[in-house]
Amino acid sequence: MPSYRAPVDDTLFLLNDVLQLQRYGNLKGFADVSPDVTGQILAEAGKLCEEAFAPLNQSGDATGCKRGADGSVTAPAGFKAAYQAYAGGGWISLPVPEEYGGQGLPYTLSMAMNEFASSANMAFAMYPGLTQGALAALLTHGSEEQKKLYAPKMAEGRWSGTMNLTEPQCGTDLGLLTTKAVPRGDGTYSITGQKIFISAGEHDLAENIVHFVLARAEGAPAGVKGISLFIVPKIVPGADGSLGARNGVSCGSIEEKMGIHGNATCVMNYDGAQGFLIGEENRGLNAMFVMMNEARLGVAVQGLAQSEVAYQNALAYAKERLQGRALTGPKYPDKKADPIIVHPDIRRMLLEIKAFNEAARGLALAAALDSDVAHRSGDPAARQAAEDRLGLMTPVLKGMLTDVGFENAVKAQQVFGGHGYIREWGMEQFVRDARIAMIYEGANGIQALDLVGRKLPREGGRAIMAFFKESAELLGAHGANEAMKPYVVPAQSALGDLQKASMWLMQNAMAKPDNAGAASYDYMHLLGRVALALMWVRIAAAAMEKKAREPETAALMDAKLVTARFYMERMLPETALRLARIVAGADTMMSLAPEMF
Fold this sequence. Notes:
By secondary structure, the chain is an alpha+beta fold. It has helices at residues 8-18, 35-53, 57-63, 79-88, 107-141, 144-156, 284-320, 344-376, 380-415, 427-435, 444-455, 462-478, 485-508, 513-549, 554-571, 574-583, 587-591, and strands spanning 66-67, 73-74, 159-164, 180-183, 189-199, 208-217, 227-233, 235-237, 243-246, 249-254, 265-278.
């Protein structure tokens, strides 16, 4: 049976030493979060995930969710008690404002908890994770009456939340959706249509489920301009929050999936269900994108989370599995063979995963901090800069972390050899579960198009220009330090590749849009690899400082410095490959007639 240990110490190092959380004490909710308090919160989070969630991962995958004849859905055994522990511990409410029943603490801490929970049991973690995304949309675009009615019970976990976008004929192109919203004459709407692939669409973990549904009101314009967003509760509440009549929404079936079997991915049927408009008619995407952007960061963390748990198990196996002898002679002559961790190719796979995980965790936490600044800072310039960074990096994190997270799960499976293909070891589940993260909340090719087609040119390229400026300042600050050159020099070279790719797009994408489309995926990964390198520069600098300040940490900090060098030497050179692909343009890619494929 696979095991999991939450990376609490590494997360604390990133928060306290690299990102310096204490510098944000002026933000609402940060003043009371000292390093000691942060440590206590994350220690409790890790303990809950290790003890309550991880033991249910394999069993939940094996049994899955069950749909009854009446359309009700039962989650796997143990999930309800685990959900109650999660909700009862205040983990859903952690970043929610206090006036709506939350604790008002930093979203950054919630991001760390989401990683731990997703590593321990990704299918389970999706239930409260979706509720948090729904809360974000509600608190941003809901009326005060809607917030007071729904938010406290959702924060408490008594009610859960979902997002309903996809229809059988309509995935990425939401302009094709056909779900209808007909005014009832009392300010509410009758919602009729079918949604598919709805995670946590029906279950027995909470007493009510609050669906956030995209639909088209009567007489609305065609395309995405005519989409509105509605709250459609499973059970319609009274004004006082008491549960009333069952609404006209039901689970038609549970999708048969490759992975995440413990989460009820449902076909949802809306048959004249009572819906409540959020915001204005025909502006539903504005509200839904709040939820989608939060979900995309959550999915990015799922990629990291599966990479982390797969790595931990592969590392443990590599230290124990005896096969062959080291190329330089026996390392354990008292044993019949050496453990496979002595072999360079095993170390290559393990170090590639480790070097990704630690820097990717730093990027995810940095994005969460930007979200906190964007929502809580009183400084307009700071808010704008944080929003720009978040807008630029969200598609990169979603695309890169999930792509590489899946690749790393496969690498970790490979470490096990034939045993990795056998279900009892758990590695094949990590591979299956990780695969969905590359697809949902916008497939990764769509993330790349969003990055190149929208995020780069927005406001005259303000975000990417700020990224270049901040990167140059970071590298310049450490460039004179001889000990930092093994990290700074490769990062400077990779940053140069990114700048060349950006300039090529500026010169070649406007006149020929296919060049942008052909380059987008490689550009997303190029920017992602550079961002990881810059995070490793920050980690290396912090590790050197911590080692000098606290000599007892020398072994741990030296391990980070070696891992950083491995990333720079063995993984970062990929940026040159990505640049070569980008500047090749679209001509060859687009020249072959469809019938010749």
